[in-house]
Amino acid sequence: MTARLRRLWRLLALPLLAIFLSVIVGSIVIIASEWLVSGELKPGLAIDAFSALVEGSVGSERAIVNTLVNTMPLLLGGLSVGLAFKGGLFNIGGYGQFLMGALGSVIVGVQLRESPAIIAIPAALAAGMLFGAVWGFIPGALKALSGAHEVVTTIMLNFIALAVLAAAVNGPLTVQGSTSPITPDVGNAALPIIIGRNGHIGLIYAPLMAVLYGWLLFRTTRGFEIRIAGSSPDAARYAGMSPKRLIIWTMSAAGLLSGMAGATDLLGTTHQMASTYGTTVGFDSIAVALLGRTSPIGIVLSALLFGALRTGSASMQIQAGVPAELVGVLQATILFFLVASPVIARLFRIRGARTGLDESTTITSTYGGEATIR
Amino acid sequence: MTSESPAVRAPALEMRGITKRYPGVVANDAIDLDVRPGEIHALLGENGAGKTTLMNILYGLARPDDGQILLDGAEVHLTGPTDAIKRGISMVHQHFMLVPVLTVAENIVLGDETMSGPFFLDRAEAHKRIVELGRRFGFEVDPEAKVGSLSVGWQQRVEILKALYRDARILVLDEPTAVLTPQETQEIFEVLRRLAAEGHSIVFISHKLYEVLEIADRITVIRRGKVVGERLPSETDEEDLAELMVGREVSLIVDRGTSNPAAATLNVEGLIVKDDRGQEAVHGIDLEVRAGEILGVAGVAGNGQDELVEAIVGLRKPSAGRVTLDGADITGQRAREVSSAGVAYVPADRHRFGLVLSFSIADNLVLTSYHRPPYSRGILRNDAEIRKMAEERIKAFDIRTPSADAKAGTLSGGNQQKVVVAREFDRDLKLLVLDQPTRGLDVGSIEFIHKQVIAKRDAGTAVLLVSAELDEVLELSDRIAVIYRGRLVAIRDGRTADKNEIGILMATGGREGATNAPASDGGTAA
After folding, report:
1. ipTM above 0.90?
2. Which residue out of A10, A224, A354, A372 would a mutagenesis test of the B interface target, given it has the greatest number of B Cβ atoms within 10 Å?
3. Are B510 and B504 in contact (CB under 8 A)?
4. Structure confidence by residue, pLDDT tens digits, A90-141
5. From CA B159, how far away is CA A279, in angstroms rounded?
6. Minimal CA separation from A223 to chain B, in Å
7. By the 8 A CB rule, do B464 and B433 touch?
8. What domains does chain A contain, in order, with CATH numbers?
9. Is the CB of B379 inside 8 Å of chain A's CB atoms?
10. What pTM does this model have?
């Protein structure tokens, strides 16, 4: 049992420390900016802000449901980025895959808005997943066939997705006779509410996807192939695997998960799409995957944290008058301290902690001309 | 730099009572080692005996828990490699620490850049020094050549040049001859003797006992973290050293028994293969390996062996020629198909190809068979079967590990190679392809692996053995083919072959006046 606890500590020490340090940095930012604006030094303001943040995210049943609803797209996105990391790929295209997923689900959702929910919901969700998968397949195929780097191609595809979405909403998808570019409501394709005011069914299937993610990676032969190819493409080739096919497969599956995140957001929360549609979920997913160290449980926990931050930021702004953007500072500093973890572990003399992110190897090594695979 | 005092000179380096503990093991247990100026001191020990730890301590990479390091009688506390280099300690590593995309000159000056002014490298000056050093010590190398395009043998020389460039006073060489021909080894020995005569102190790490006996002034043997003996070459022999090292009697020469070759299993006809850069590296090779026979391919690293082997096992598409296995055409088939046809392959670079170091031993043992029942059930892994197999093989092949879940990277080199051997040998095979199967291993592990190879041969498997270790090829092979610049230049009977003749063939291809140049010039048909 103690060995188990020690292992747990080894895994958790640094993420927890990173979170703690980012709270301290956040407090300094709050106090300093207040001082710059009003000239008053109010150390209590940081406490007010963080208690408002906690209150707004988990302080009531409604807050908790909101947090959960905000968590689900982050969770799916985190799994998407995490899966790519496991395969040695850096998927920065979560943003574009998310948008395409939302677009796919709104197209089908609007078409089927008057069909029975039992048909409309699965069809709209599947369309979102398919659109996302295509948006992951493209960079995967480009890398496998030509060696084009996925970091570059996915970033480009993010912009393309944004443009495609705007064109679609401004053009064929706009409500007839409407003056503003917005699609009709998805009607019956909206995800059913199972808890509270807005707790939709995504609260059930997204965590199931995390289970599926762990099962795929650690119980199936395909998962073994992905992990081997991610750790050592040369050994994968030697073992008779096809790294090229695995790259395409992994990127498509990652796109599918991000697409599912987009579809969940659209069908579960916004129900229609304006031409300004878009969230930072696709990018925050990278942070979720890194903080969760690509493990299924880790991604669930870090998605919950980021979901809570996102939810509580509004009450922080209202109650304490601290801009909601502070949450962005918190998220960024958490990441910063994580990536700097070998330094942090040394500064705080944490022994035995697992320092450094395996995934950061992927991030850096994928920039070093390793793009050519045979 | 040179010590003038005659007779008994004070040690240039003294390590006293060095102790280093890692969780669960004492890697170094009160080790004493001293090296005098102008002395070549050999350090012998099996992999995992603690040589590397000791050298890491000397190089400032690890700090001892106990003990002292003295340079010229004064105690020093090394803070890191930079500090060690500044004090005149340089190391030539077993796994080369070179940047392949940089030139020879850039690699050599890396970390000790000769500057002209505050911002710019003085390339001209660096080149001049490198050429001078190369000339002085007998291996001239083009400072502008990219290191990645050099053969392993020449990369080694670059490593040595790098140390000399830093005015190393104490030079640590980790297995410097592992990749060299006998002639090249003699050349390196000349270099080392010249260095010693100039007053340099040399720590020479090797597993080749006869080499140690030839080059060393003194030999220290360590086993399981302890010094178990110190010998002068004049008062010891190979058997004595091997026994000290391993702690039991070892047979140095494999008892290869008699072989009974049957019909040809592998037939290669007119094989032409290109390397990664698109240059032809194998120019039309014909060979056959019969069932129950070991065919050794001797050659200096970088003469097309890797490309030949990769084309046979399906990792590289040949541009022309035919490969047949028991009459069935397997030319250009993918690695998995070739493997399923009954071919096993032990790659030269086990860290890069043969193993995934961050994965468990069990995962590594199933690396090439994970997709086959009983290790898979449909799309699922069968963890129970994998585990059972892993535990059986760990026992059968004597892999020293606390458990099947330990990461492959935590094993010693010999045990890592046992994992590869256990995985590849433990099924019915038609053809076994071995590329440098014992590179960097200690005598105990080499003995074990050689016995396994002989057992496979006796079971009727055709064995293709590629090795830069001429002794290994001579000891095991029934027939020896010499490869030079992508062609087989000679075939000799394994039992009657003359070592010197083979060595010369390896280095020159048997042509008059051929130079011992690196085989990395693209190997164009000469």
Report:
1. no
2. A224
3. yes
4. 999 999 999 999 999 999 999 999 999 999 999 999 999 999 999 999 999 9
5. 53
6. 9
7. yes
8. 2-365 (1.10.3470)
9. yes
10. 0.78
